[in-house]
Amino acid sequence: MPLPRSPVSVALSISASGGAILAALEFRNATAGTAHLYKVLACLDGRIENNLFEIDGPKGPVLYNGRYVKRREPAPADFLALAPGAELRATVDLAGSYMFDQGPGRYRAHYFAINPSRSDADTLEELVSNTVTFELDR
Hints:
Number of domains: 1
Structural class: mainly beta
Mean pLDDT: 92
Largest sheet: 5 strands, antiparallel
Helix content: under 10%
Order of helices and strands: EEEEEEEEEE
Shape: elongated
CATH topology: Immunoglobulin-like
Distance between the termini: 41 Å
Low-confidence stretches: none
Number of helices: 0
CATH class: Mainly Beta
Radius of gyration: 15 Å
């Protein structure tokens, strides 16, 4: 059974220049009520602490080689409250957490995470961004 979509939408854009592959994320609450986002999924301070991006390169999937952090069950303080219409932006460098060893070419990526409920540990929601295409010339 598929998980329900989170009330928080995610917009992704990626720019590749030099050795950096910058992913800009915009989380937005488009509902009339407060929505909650698990902090570690927001890539705050430019940190990726789990495999949050699905990336395909010219030769297949791009592997994640970043950190996996095991955590306790989330507590209410582990969530960001997004008021109706509120947005949160974060930027991360994918080159530090994914193996871009397929060489130059066209890549496709999207953000994907499971957002737990702030009030009910058994309720999970999908956070899925748009899919973007970008070129690497290295």
